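Working notes for the structural subgroup meeting. M.R. asked for a predicted model of this chain before we commit to crystallization trials. I am recording the input and output together here so anyone reviewing the notebook later can reproduce the run.

Input as submitted:
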Amino acid sequence: MDNRNDFQVTGHELGCESVEHLVDHVQAICAHERQRIELVNESEILRLRLEIAAWADEEKRIGERLRLAPPPGDERLRRREMWFVGVVALALTVAGFFLSLLAFEPFRLGWKSYLYCVGIALVCPFCVDKCLKQWDCHPLLKGATAIACVAAIASLMLLAVIRGDLVGQQLKDTESQSVVIDDGGPAPQNDNHFYDNALPLLQLTMALLAVAMELGAGLALHELKRLGADSDEDARTIAQELMRVRLHIAALGSGIVTRTNEGAVFEERFQRDFCRAMLTHAGRKALGKVLALALCLTLLSSARVRADEQLLNLVIMIDLSGSVASKGPDGKTDFQKDVAAAADVLAQIPAGTHVTVLGITANSFAEPDILLRANMPQDPGYFGERLAAAHGELVRAWQTRSDRLSPTERQTDILGALLVASQLLRKEPTSRNLLVLYSDMRNTTDHLNLERLRAVDVEANSTALKRHGLIADLRGVSVYVEGVDAAGLQTDQWDRVRRFWEAYFGGAGAALATYETLHETPHLGR
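Returned structure, recorded in token form:
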């Protein structure tokens, strides 16, 4: 027996088994991570779908406003078009009256026929207009217009055929013998079948003309009422608003697709990188692969430790004043959206984060309202399981505490809350300081009342606040201002308040990252 060959066979089998064992473990890790990503994204996908449904209702409502609004353009041109459409509707109605009168004339009904004809001439346009109004269906309007157009063109074509037959008959009569000569034999017979041939075509023409005229009169009446609609809304403004809503719906749909495919994208990228690594290092020994894998894990662990050295200090401020209690188109108040956005932030904060949720009240500095404080574990776990569990506990704690909150404060002391936040944010060079505000940013205190928009003087207010020591020390702090409601403000008024806060944060030494009306989740990654 050759023991050397046995050892070679055994080594080959061990090498194959080790590679297969490694591949199985890698695939298991990939599958579990994909499932985790899909489970985490389920709640966000559901929220996005519900938000899309709410915005779809808003889109329908704006579309109805746009349909009822008068068309854009010069008022005199619109009046001229109204006159033209009115004349067309009247002419078609009168033509329908005379066509009906022509049909009743052989029956000699007397004055009754006039009454019947008036009703016949008016009922069809009226019914067409009511049908289009009640159904409020654009395809129905297009279908009625198409039918009237086809009927009118077909009737004109039939009339052209009748005219052609008439000309042909006249030519035949001209060529036929018009004088009878004595003893010239019997006169040739003139077979004139013009009326027999033209009668069915004429009947069909009259029917098509009746359909075209009555539908045309109804459509003209409907268009006349639309042009004469009295509305203060501008069609161009409504169209722009509708476009913004549709773009927002498209962005939400894109978010759903991204989160739905995130697990599959991760798996494909993982498998690609793994296969590439296997092919690159296929010629190396199994021991070399194990050492390389151990080295990679060591480097990843050390990189994670180095990343964790710079911890995150996060302060979230929630507006509790009555100014955020107004409901939006989706039926939710700005306060409810702020609470939900804060939950989204808490669900994705990194490991080692020190987080504080602070309420903005009428007296934020003298009586700070600390809603929630927590420290996230610095070790997220090998697969992030510890960090995921901490996220779940933190979100549940926030939901429990936020259920007892309500926006009932009569004033908004944002300046005092910023002073408290400057004390909560640590100044160590190894920590990153983030401040997230969910508020309409309308401070209403004795030193600064932004509800009086005439008082929004950037330079004067900044000087006065500095004199009273109301500008917080926010050096090295990144500030995200979200959910700045513009209800009751014009665009220039909202922009004036924004410029004031830009000047304030600049004087406080902070970096203002965002200032927007949407309730977006800031990027908290390192």
